Amino acid sequence: MHDDDTRSERDLSRQSRLHAHWRRGPRGDDAQFRAGGNAASRNHAFGWRAEAVVAEARREVADLIGAARPRDVIFTSGATESNNTVVRGVAAQFPSVAHVITTAIEHPSILEACLHEQRSGRIALTVVPVDTAGVVSAAAITEAIRRRHA
C-alpha cells in the first residue's frame, strides 16, 4: 500500500463517520447542558428539565414550520428513523393501495421503507432506473405514471 492510498483511506474513513453527524451550534450545546437528563424520565428533576427543553424546542419548530400544534412535531433519533416514519405514515393515509414512484438512486432508507411497505401490501412501488450517467429521465417518470394509471 502506498502513502497516497493510506491517506485516501484515512480521509474516506473520517468522511464516512461525519455523514451521520452534524455539529450543533452554541444554542444546541446550551440546551443539552441545561437539560442534563432524559426527557422520557419524568420521575426526577433532571428528567423534568429535559422534558421542558424538548417541549420548548417542539414549540419553536412548530412556530417555524407553521404546524397547527406543537404535538404535531415529532423528533426522531436520525434521518433513517425519520424517513421510515414518513414513508409508513404516508402509506397509512391512503384507503387503498397507493402507487409510489421512486428512483434507483433514492436514499437507501427511503427505498428500504418503500420496499417494506410494498411487501406488506400497502403500496404499489415503481422504481425508475437511471441512465448510464446516473440521470433519471422525465420520460421514464411519465411512463411510470401512465403505466400505473392506464
UniProtKB/TrEMBL annotation:
GO molecular function: cysteine desulfurase activity; transaminase activity
Requisite cofactors: pyridoxal 5'-phosphate
SUPFAM superfamilies tied to this protein: PLP-dependent transferases
Superkingdom, natural source: Bacteria
Biased segments, Basic residues type: 16-25
One Pfam family hit: Aminotran_5
Similarity annotation: Belongs to the class-V pyridoxal-phosphate-dependent aminotransferase family. NifS/IscS subfamily.
Name of the protein in its database record: Aminotransferase class V-fold PLP-dependent enzyme
